[in-house]
From TrEMBL:
Residues 30-96, 97-190 form the DUF1285 domain. Coiled coil: none annotated. It holds the Pfam family DUF1285_N. This is DUF1285 domain-containing protein.
């Protein structure tokens, strides 16, 4: 199958790729929080709610290119941007920029360790630096997220979300019963127990 994402010389995608280089041996993401080049406007790039990256309406079918771009993604106060030392361009993100697609769990209770792998192979362990947050979707369903880096979060896939909730427990907080999950020495509230019908 041919890749519908050609790197047309001079295109925004080609410029970003050239600025990043192709060094696959880079250790960790670059320091995008320290780069402040001029904002160059929006490009036609979108991260769909299912984690698929699109450019000019077509999926980017090169995992190495998606991973490369994911390392220079940043959330500014007003928008998501791809940042290189020389330019900053806005992109659209439908929900969270990443998906948490694999989970490992060790231990129980407050000492429980939970780690995730994202769809772009970031590895994060839940705790104070990588908290969980829980939101409701439009249909009243539960959507857990884990913080990856900066202000970038990964949506936990549905099957893993069910496993997370199965590890939950009820605790008292501020005089109310809260259902939540303990991991990495932190208790992450999911919802008031009364909303879940367990209080």
């Amino acid at each position: 199958m041919t890749d519908p994402t050609p790197l047309t010389p001079g295109s925004a995608l080609a410029r970003l790729t050239e600025a990043l280089g192709s060094d696959s041996k880079r250790k960790g993401p670059p320091p995008v929080e320290r780069w402040n080049p001029a904002y160059c406007g929006e490009i036609d790039m979108r991260i769909a709610a299912d984690g698929t990256w699109h450019y000019m309406g077509s999926p980017i079918n090169r995992p190495s290119l998606v991973k490369l771009f994911s390392t220079v993604l940043r959330k500014d106060p007003e928008r998501y941007v791809l940042v290189t030392p020389v330019e900053r361009v806005g992109i659209m993100v439908e929900d969270a920029p990443f998906l948490a697609v694999e989970m490992a769990v060790e231990g129980e209770g407050q000492g429980r360790q939970v780690a995730f792998r994202t769809n772009v192979d970031d590895l994060v362990q839940v705790g104070p630096d990588h908290p969980l947050r829980f939101e409701q979707d439009a249909n009243g369903g539960l959507k857990p997220y884990v913080k990856v880096r900066g202000e970038l979060w990964a949506l936990v896939t549905r099957s893993l979300a069910l496993d997370l909730v199965a590890m939950g427990e009820e605790r008292a907080a501020d005089g109310a019963a809260i259902f939540g999950l303990a991991a990495g020495g932190v208790f992450f509230p999911i919802a008031p127990a009364s909303e879940l019908g367990i209080a």
